[in-house]
C-alpha cells in the first residue's frame, strides 16, 4: 500500500450572489407578462435549435478533426426523444461520438448522428499506434482538441474514451506528467453537486499534475456534457457515480473512470487499495496535448429536412 500524501485541492472558484431590487423585478415581470399576453406568433413551425445558441447546446458546432472521416448530420432532440429511444442498443456509440452522457441529452439540444451507424462502430479519435508511447509500459494520451483519452501499452492503443477537460479560462495544462496519487473515494473540497447537498464526487481519482500555484489536476469520474466543462481536471464517464448522486440512469452502463483507474493504478504492483489517498510509485506517463476544440458561431452542417432516426422504443 502506498504512503498517504498531503491534502490536495482544486482550483478556487468563488461565486457571489448579487442582490436584486424587488420593486424593479415586479415591474419587469408585469411588463413581460403583458407582452406575452398581447403578442402571438405570426407563424408556427417545428421545434428547432436557437440560432444564437446562448447555452452552447448545439454540439454540431463543436469541431473535432477526427470526425472529418465520419459522414454525420445534426439531429435536434425533440420531446420524448433520448439516446436509447433513437438508437436502441447502439446509443453508446452515439454518446461516445458526442462526448456526452445520457444525463445531458435533453429536448432542445442538437447532437451529431452518423448517417450510417456502422461508420462509428470502431471509432476512436486517437491513433492506434503512438510512437512517443512505445518505450513506456503504460502511457496515457489526452487530446484537448479531440476531448479524448487513450491508454497505450508499448505504443499500441489498448482502449480509448471520451473526456471532458478544462473549460475556457480553466484549460487543462499541457505537457508531460505522471500519475502520482490515487484516491478511489475522492470528493471535491470546493464544489458541490447541483442540489448543493454534498461535495461533488470525484470517484476513481488519479492526480497527474500539481502546479506551482498549488492547483491539483486529476483524472476522475465526472458528468460529460459534450464539451470542455471542468475547472482543469479531466473527467470521464461514470454512470455508477451519477446513479448514486442523482438517481439516474437507473442501470449504469458507461463506467470508463473505473476501467482507466483499474488499468492505470490497480493491480498487484500498487498493492491493496484502501480507498484513501495513496502515492503511486512509477505511475503511467500522462501527455496532455493540443488546445480546446473550436466552437463555431454556426452549425458545421445544416439540419436535414427529415431526420433519418425516429423513436424506436420508449426506454429511458
Strand line-up across the major sheet:
5-4-3-14-6
- What is the second-level CATH architecture of the largest domain? Beta Barrel
Element-by-element helix/strand order: HEHHEEEEEEEEEEEHHEE
- Spans of 5+ residues with little confidence (pLDDT < 50)? 1-9, 11-47
Give the N-to-C terminal Cα separation. Answer: 41 Å
How many distinct domains? 2
Largest sheet: 5 strands, mixed
Which properties best describe this structure?
5 helices, 5-stranded mixed sheet, alpha+beta, 2 domains, single chain, 316 residues, 14 strands, L,D-transpeptidase catalytic domain-like
Can you put this structure into words, describing what you see?
It is a single chain. The chain is of the alpha+beta class and 316 residues long. The protein folds into two domains: 46-123 and 295-316, no CATH class; 131-289, L,D-transpeptidase catalytic domain-like. The chain is built from five helices and 14 strands.
Write the layout of secondary structure elements.
Blueprint: H1 22-38, E1 72-76, H2 83-87, H3 91-97, E2 110-114, E3 139-143, E4 148-153, E5 156-162, E6 175-178, E7 181-183, E8 187-192, E9 199-201, E10 205-210, E11 216-221, E12 234-236, H4 239-246, H5 256-265, E13 278-279, E14 285-289
Parallel strand pairs: 3-14, 11-12
Antiparallel strand pairs: 1-2, 3-4, 4-5, 6-14, 7-10, 7-13, 8-9, 10-11
Amino acid at each position: 500500500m502506498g504512503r498517504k500524501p498531503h491534502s490536495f485541492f482544486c482550483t478556487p472558484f468563488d461565486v457571489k450572489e448579487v442582490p436584486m431590487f424587488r420593486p424593479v423585478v415586479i415591474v419587469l415581470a408585469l411588463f413581460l407578462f403583458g407582452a406575452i399576453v398581447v403578442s402571438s406568433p405570426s407563424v408556427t413551425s417545428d421545434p428547432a435549435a436557437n440560432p444564437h445558441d446562448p447555452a452552447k447546446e448545439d454540439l454540431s458546432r463543436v469541431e473535432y478533426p477526427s470526425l472529418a472521416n465520419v459522414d454525420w448530420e445534426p439531429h435536434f432532440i425533440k420531446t420524448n426523444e433520448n439516446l436509447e429511444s433513437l438508437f436502441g442498443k447502439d446509443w453508446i456509440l452515439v454518446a461516445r461520438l458526442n462526448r456526452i452522457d445520457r444525463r445531458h441529452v435533453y429536448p432542445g439540444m442538437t447532437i451529431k448522428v452518423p448517417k450510417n451507424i456502422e461508420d462509428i462502430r470502431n471509432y476512436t479519435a486517437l491513433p492506434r499506434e503512438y510512437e512517443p508511447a512505445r518505450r513506456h509500459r503504460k502511457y496515457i494520451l489526452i487530446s484537448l482538441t479531440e476531448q479524448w483519452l487513450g491508454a497505450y501499452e508499448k505504443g499500441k492503443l489498448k482502449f480509448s474514451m471520451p473526456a471532458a477537460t478544462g473549460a475556457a479560462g480553466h484549460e487543462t495544462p499541457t505537457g508531460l506528467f505522471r500519475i502520482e496519487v490515487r484516491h478511489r473515494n475522492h470528493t471535491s473540497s470546493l464544489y458541490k453537486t447541483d442540489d448543493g447537498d454534498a461535495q461533488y464526487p470525484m470517484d476513481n481519482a488519479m492526480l497527474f499534475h500539481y502546479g506551482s500555484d498549488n492547483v491539483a489536476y486529476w483524472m476522475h469520474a465526472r458528468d460529460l456534457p459534450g464539451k470542455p466543462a471542468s475547472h482543469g481536471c479531466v473527467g470521464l464517464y461514470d454512470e455508477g457515480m451519477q446513479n448514486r448522486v442523482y438517481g439516474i440512469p437507473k442501470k449504469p452502463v458507461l463506467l470508463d473512470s473505473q476501467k482507466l483507474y483499474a488499468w492505470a493504478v490497480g493491480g498487484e504492483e500498487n498493492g491493496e487499495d484502501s480507498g484513501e489517498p495513496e502515492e503511486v510509485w512509477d505511475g503511467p506517463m500522462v501527455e496532455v496535448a493540443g488546445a480546446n476544440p473550436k466552437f463555431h458561431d454556426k452549425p458545421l452542417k445544416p439540419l436535414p429536412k427529415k431526420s433519418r432516426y425516429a423513436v424506436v422504443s420508449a426506454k429511458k
